[in-house]
Fold this protein.
Amino acid sequence: MSEANTSVVALSGGVGGAKLALGLSQQLDPADLTVVCNTGDDFEHLGVTICPDLDTVLYTLADWNNKELGWGQAEESWQFLEALRRLGGEDWFSLGDRDMATHIVRTELLEAGQSLSSVIAHLATKMGITHRVLPMSDEPVRTQVLTQSGERLMFQHYFVRDRCEPAVTGFEFAGIENARPSSGFLEALQRAGSIIVCPSNPFVSVDPILRLPGVEQAIRAAEVPVIVVSNIVGGQALKGPAAKMMTELEIPMTALGVAQHYAGQYPGLFSGFVLDSEDEALQEAVEALGLPTIVTNTVMLTLHDKTELARECLAFADSLKLP
Amino acid sequence: MSEANTSVVALSGGVGGAKLALGLSQQLDPADLTVVCNTGDDFEHLGVTICPDLDTVLYTLADWNNKELGWGQAEESWQFLEALRRLGGEDWFSLGDRDMATHIVRTELLEAGQSLSSVIAHLATKMGITHRVLPMSDEPVRTQVLTQSGERLMFQHYFVRDRCEPAVTGFEFAGIENARPSSGFLEALQRAGSIIVCPSNPFVSVDPILRLPGVEQAIRAAEVPVIVVSNIVGGQALKGPAAKMMTELEIPMTALGVAQHYAGQYPGLFSGFVLDSEDEALQEAVEALGLPTIVTNTVMLTLHDKTELARECLAFADSLKLP
């Protein structure tokens, strides 16, 4: 570790994480940013392997993302899905015509024996992305949602098919015991000057990454600032089911609840916390957890919002570096 | 066999065969028509199993076929293919967005262990097709094109990717020795009152069907009229590379050449031949091969053309039945 090390590892889920990843990509040279994505949401569907968080990050960094929908590709069309419906196929997951090409190319390369890291690197290159995007692991980890009814749901069944309706009691990450972090992820941690946890769902986006065997140890070994941006603002999740999950898990549905989760689950791992201006009143309570905290605008509506939050996170991380 | 048996088995390749199959479907009750399709053109591409002849027949019978293009689905779009191209995928085969749903559903059901016959029955039902459409076999047969350069090409590589440019020296049907006719095909032959070979390419559409182990014997055992409609009219193939193949194989590029092929390769199998009006001058020469021949309009531009040719073929077959 040297003070001149500006290399950043960003840990990301889908939409919220991708926004900050885009901001960071505006602030950092390609050699200085590695975005590591959760793959716990990945699934096999209609014979193809779908990686929602990776694709969201890729599409966002490539500026291929659909700004109207907030997910998927720009200028998407749905002829495949309509034809699938006519033929009685499973249509609960909205696979766009353009999006389908991503899944087909990925599945073909995976079946030819390429690692997921290699496939994502190929897709990123074709999309013109110069910053590094990596899966957390090349081995499958599949998030399962434990529900009050006792049913165990594959994450996308819970998230998309059942619209997050079942009440959650916990999560399991099937396959995680035997999954290794991708080699690029571990190498990036070794080179890292700081680590930023993007505003993603702690339970289903960030926990799977941090709980991969060896990741927590590698982060500790890096001895660099590790900051986390709250995904909860004003008691609401900006995107996705995090707030509903927190209620069901009986965790305070606030940014403080998020900070408590991270501080409680990973004692001493984090060096700093980023609160939204709306949650300024929580700053003292978060700092009482041993987490130096900054307060800023974390709601990223414009590209300027994203680059500004990225700039503030980088400056905050720098300020936490050992002298 | 009884004189009252009006059950017809039609053997078909793609576009030309599908036209007559549609005509026959207008003339016959669902219980009285089984369309058996060549699967030698089938191939695995981008992780999905594609059955061009079966799909052409299904789309045509369902009135889902694209009349402008002459292949594929009506109101097709190409967003998947364009996205695939951007991602560096293999784009030589024009997979439409709607068409892709057919391949995805088929591949998923095949991988779940269903037979191709069962999958095609499912697709036909979803398309509202009441007549029976069957693959010639549930086991893969893959036509290989032998070329003058010595290269052996998978049929779709020859046909689509290489635009039929390589000069042909012959064909091999990989897997045919171990493929069995689909059980529905054999049952239909046992019940058949007549058999009609549609105007399809003799070498790559009809030969694979007739050369499946047991098919020729089953046709002979049926002891019913077997008539063939020439796919060559006025020295030209109405569709596809048949005429070019005949030149390269040094077979006269006429309907007589077609009749000679069938009479030579399958002695005594055929009971009648259907010539286009344009080829009336060939009637005597075809009949000299031992093939009673009728002359009629075989160029099927309109639905009326198709039903009329079907009517004439059925009447011709009836006229050839044993008293």
Q: What stands out?
A: Chain A has one domain: 8-320.
